[in-house]
Amino acid sequence: MTHVATSRRIVGAVSGLLLAALLCAVLLRGGAPFALDTACHRWVLDHRGRALTDLAVTVTRTGAGVCAYGLAAAGGALALRRPWPWRWWPAALVAMAALLVGQALRTGLAALVGRARPPAADWITHPSGQAFPSGHTTTSTLLAIGVAVVLHRRAGRPATRVAAVVIPGLWAFSVGASRVLLGVHWTTDVLAGWLLGTLVACICLPALAAVLHRIRPDSSGDD
Question: Which of 29, 110, 121, 146 has an alpha carbon within 20 to 30 A of 84's alpha carbon?
Fold first, then answer.
């Protein structure tokens, strides 16, 4: 087992345990928000302005829909070191399918928990579905990890490798924060999304790497 595989398993195990603990706490409270949730929500209502709200709307749009699936497709194509002509599209489809699996897991968990969102009067956008965990946050986290892995392996310089991890990470953090700023999620919904996205990425990346390796034998594996 390589160092990378060991680290991935540790991160996945920690994320899973923290998510399970948070899930149990939410269920025991019947979905009621925690003190942290209400405090952050009040702070947002007291401090968000037009410029910050417009920025949050722009950022949150990148965490779902066409933008998210386009980023997944690009990441899948880039995962092939030297893609042959017309060989990039199966990799793009595989990456988008992996994202779809993550979103399906999130939807199922949200339906199971059935947690209500903050009051609709506080919303800036109009979300759908249950609150826990945040879908935009789960999607952007899963994407950020996948893209970071691909870019890190293709980067040649140490500084570039750091940027390959930091930039996607900051994007995923910003998408999650935007959901709280827009008043459509409690803070713990976002925390759960970060944890779920990390867990799914740790589980799915080896399988995804194996599929990409079959598409193009010189694509890098995960172990």
Answer: 146
